[in-house]
Write a structure and sequence with these properties.
The complex is a heterodimer of chains A (399) and B (310). Chain A is built from 15 helices and 15 strands. In chain A, helix 4 crosses helix 11 (271-287) and helix 12 packs parallel to helix 15. Chain A folds into two domains: 3-21 and 288-398, Aspartate Aminotransferase, domain 1 (Alpha-Beta Complex), CATH 3.90.1150.10; 33-286, 3-Layer(aba) Sandwich (Aspartate Aminotransferase, domain 2), CATH 3.40.640.10. Chain A has 399 residues and is an alpha/beta fold. In chain A, strand 5 (158-162), helix 8 and strand 6 (187-191) form a beta-alpha-beta unit. Chain A has a seven-stranded mixed beta sheet with strand order 2-8-7-6-5-3-4, sandwiched between helices. Chain B is of the alpha+beta class. Chain B has two domains: 1-99, no CATH class; 123-305, Glutaredoxin (3-Layer(aba) Sandwich). Chain B contains 13 helices and eight strands. Chain B has helices at residues 2-16, 21-35, 44-57, 61-69, 71-99, 169-184, 203-213, 215-227, 230-233, 236-246, 250-257, 260-274, 297-305, and strands spanning 121-124, 129-131, 151-152, 158-164, 187-193, 280-281, 283-286, 289-292. Chain B is elongated and about 90 Å long. Chain B starts with a helix and ends in a 5-residue tail after the last helix. Classes of the chains: A alpha/beta (399), B alpha+beta (310). The interface between A and B is medium-sized, with 16 and 15 residues. Chain B: It comes from Candidatus Beckwithbacteria bacterium GW2011_GWB1_47_15. Chain B: Residues 184-302 form the DSBA-like thioredoxin domain. Chain B: The chain crosses the membrane at residues 73-90. Chain B: Pfam families: DSBA (PF01323). Chain B: Keywords: Isomerase, Membrane, Transmembrane, Transmembrane helix.
């Protein structure tokens, strides 16, 4: 990969004033994605799948291409298995409210879930009485498989887990998790928000039932996301949101839903976003996941090796950086994480996340106020991580 | 404490800078929470502290470290300094409104609202101009026999005394204001010419004789002398012309002004004026309170009428 060429695709990186290490929140966008969005608004700003004129036909065609691109990207057997959403949260909620869960049904999650994959189950527990079981992680942040096995033996309806945690970058053993869940008849949904942008995932091979992810963490526009679901399962689900463009016909007293994916895509969609997401997928395929993994591991290894030398600094998750994707989340006893993040920004324009990263439950259960999280992507460089480490040391020295 | 100081500072900056208004609002929110006994949970202080320490860190690690360590103490110092500054600013504004000088009645020194000190300037004895070197606090009417000097509306409750020189710039500046004051208010008004410039010495006997000859016309003479060109005051012919215009018997006045009796009266009056500890003109006494230098009209009026802010 020609890093200079890659960086020249990203307008913010061309300026060279900002070191962007908040990729777990959202990635930057290459010019190709920005151009695709602009092209929609400039050349064919019309509705998809409704009107018959040439602009509408063009949008319909572009959106269909994006759907195919996403389907191929994740290894879906059928393009209809790709439902466009606004984000991962919407995808998870769609399943939570469409799956027909009833009182006593058991939903299993990990103890490192983003609020997106925690709150829906808490609400359903309160509303209809589902049983929500949480599988703990060990001190390295790895899922306790013994407890998982036990929970499955006790009975489960749905396993809904974060594929790669945005807290520490650790991935669960998905193949094993899916296989074991299926053995007891449970369905599996994965929160792929932090996984899809960083590793090759083949949903067919993985045999996962549902996979939700966001466009904005994988070079795509904000407000875009995808819910993958096996076709036979999606066909059985009741739509979560209903209304415009979800039905083929209606009378004053009845309606007939369209087939998937339309029945789940209510109302006018974010066509520019969908087309931009298609462009993002094509860009990522060109870069390749081998390159992405290699860059992330190399940079993460450097940061990790430097950070472990700092007194009082604790890295959340395993010491081995290869197990933490592109994420380094850390805290210093007695030091304010927000202050560290703000000072990194102020001193060197380094953008990192500070706080509890929407995984409040994990921090609160351990009485840890929060952490600083540096999350890397393939367009980051060794010079940037060196600057990060040097400036972090400088900041810590004055606190 | 930081929230309060930040609110004050950002509030002032945001008058001129729209980009600081959101921060000022955040600071206000923090202050409001504190005064309503609620915790400030917005993280405003931490955010600002980090930004400030971060900026310092790029210049000096030691300064950043000290700033970070003593942030609360510095906030207190800045707070006290700001409160003191606001107090002194308020006091300065009050003094300027009340006395025409930020420093107080008859007090010289820099005043941003009167940077050249125009309201305190006097023409000193000997003819030089500027802020007088006398002691303003010693200026008094105590023991001065005002009956010796031209007066009108005698018996009025309030009393205004103007001691000035016809050719003094600052008396000429104050004179119309005093005239307005006495025309708008029933006061016992006394005028005394104190010749800080030698070329106006000859006006002492002329004034004495003119007042003696016709008291009513004397005030017109005064007006004409102050209204005329300063350079003309020193010319005897100019004054004679005025006297004649007004209707005075010029020959009689000239004869009177050279008499020994007039000379001793003039000396007596000068001695009497020295009792005021005068060191320059103008001095306006309003009900005994001496105002050195030409003050704004509101100052004269306020002292005459008492406390008024409208």
């Amino acid at each position: 990969m020609d890093i200079n060429k890659v960086r020249s695709d990203f307008p913010l990186l061309r300026e060279g004033k900002t070191i962007y290490f908040d990729n777990a929140c959202q990635s930057l966008r290459p010019q190709q994605v920005i151009d695709a969005i602009s092209e929609y608004y400039r050349d064919y700003p019309a509705c998809s799948g409704r009107s018959m004129h040439h602009l509408a036909v063009k949008v319909t065609q572009k959106c269909d291409e994006a759907r195919k691109a996403v389907a191929n990207f994740i290894g879906a057997k059928h393009k209809e298995e790709v439902i466009f959403t606004r984000n991962t949260t919407e995808g998870i909620n769609l399943v939570a409210y469409s799956l027909g869960l009833k009182k006593g049904d058991v939903v299993i999650t990990s103890d490192k879930e983003h609020n997106s994959n925690l709150i829906p189950w808490q609400v359903l527990k309160e509303k209809i009485g589902i049983v929500h079981k949480i599988i703990p992680s060990d001190s390295d942040g790895l899922l306790d498989m013994e407890q998982y096995d036990q929970a499955l033996r006790d009975g489960a309806t749905l396993v809904s887990m974060v594929f790669t945690s945005n807290l520490d970058g650790v991935s669960i053993p998905t193949e094993e998790v899916v296989k074991k869940a299926h053995q007891v008849g449970a369905k599996v949904m994965l929160d792929g928000a932090q996984a899809i942008p960083h590793q090759k995932i083949d949903v067919a091979k993985l045999d996962v039932d549902f996979l939700a992810f966001s466009g904005h963490k994988m070079l795509g526009p904000t407000g875009t996301g995808v819910l993958y679901g096996k076709r036979e399962l999606l066909n059985k689900l009741e739509p979560f949101l209903v209304g415009g463009d979800t039905v083929s016909s209606s009378t004053y007293t009845s309606h007939e839903f369209l087939p998937i994916p339309e029945k789940f895509e209510a109302g006018l969609q974010d066509y520019a976003g969908i087309i931009g997401l298609g462009a993002a997928v094509r860009y990522l395929e060109n870069v390749g996941f081998d390159t992405i993994s290699h860059v992330e591991h190399e940079l993460n290894s450097y940061i990790t090796n430097e950070l472990i030398k700092i007194d009082g600094l604790t890295i959340i998750g395993p010491a081995d950086p290869t197990l933490r994707s592109g994420i380094v989340s850390f805290y210093l006893k007695g030091k304010d994480h927000h202050q560290i993040a703000l000072m990194l920004d102020e001193t060197a324009g380094i953008c990192v996340r500070s706080g509890q990263h929407c995984v409040h439950s994990w921090f609160n259960s351990r009485n840890i106020p929060g952490s600083v999280r540096a999350s890397l992507y393939f367009y980051n460089t060794m010079e940037e991580v060196e600057s990060f480490v040097n400036n972090l040391k400088k900041v810590i020295s004055v606190l | 404490m930081f929230c309060i100081i930040a609110f004050i500072v950002l509030g002032i900056i945001s008058i001129f800078s729209a980009s600081h208004r959101e921060l000022a609002k955040e600071a206000f929110d923090c202050v409001f929470r504190r005064i309503t006994f609620r915790p400030c949970t917005t993280g405003f202080k931490e955010k600002m502290k980090a930004r400030l320490v971060g900026k310092l860190l790029n210049r000096s690690a030691l300064a950043a470290k000290l700033f970070n360590r003593h942030f609360e103490l510095l906030s207190w110092i800045l707070f006290i300094a700001t409160i003191a500054s606001i107090f002194w600013t308020g006091k300065g504004l009050f003094n300027f409104y009340m006395y025409g000088s930020c420093n107080g009645l008859n007090k010289s020194g820099f005043c941003a609202l009167d940077p050249k000190g125009e309201n305190n300037k006097v023409s000193q004895t000997g003819g030089s101009c500027g802020t007088g070197e006398g002691d303003e606090s010693k200026v008094t009417l105590s023991g001065v026999n005002l009956d010796l000097f031209p007066s009108k509306n005698i018996g009025a409750k309030d009393e205004v005394v103007l001691i000035g020189c016809y050719s003094c710039d600052y008396t000429r500046k104050a004179y119309p204001l005093v005239k307005q004051l006495i025309s708008e208010n029933p006061v016992n008004y006394t005028f005394a010419h104190y010749p800080v410039k030698e070329e106006t010495l000859y006006l002492l006997p002329i004034g004495y004789c003119a007042y003696k000859q016709d008291q009513a016309k004397y005030w017109e003479l005064n007006d004409r002398l102050f209204a005329g060109e300063k350079s003309d005051i020193a010319r005897r012919e100019f004054v004679d012309t005025i006297l004649k215009d007004i209707g005075y018997d010029v020959d009689a006045i000239n004869s009177c002004s050279t008499s020994p009796e007039t000379n001793s009266a003039v000396v007596e009056r000068r001695i009497e004026l020295e009792k005021t500890n005068i060191y320059g003109t103008p001095i306006v006494f309003i009900n005994g309170k001496g105002l050195v230098g030409p003050k704004p009209y509101r100052v004269y009026e306020r002292i005459l009428k008492g406390w008024r802010f409208w």
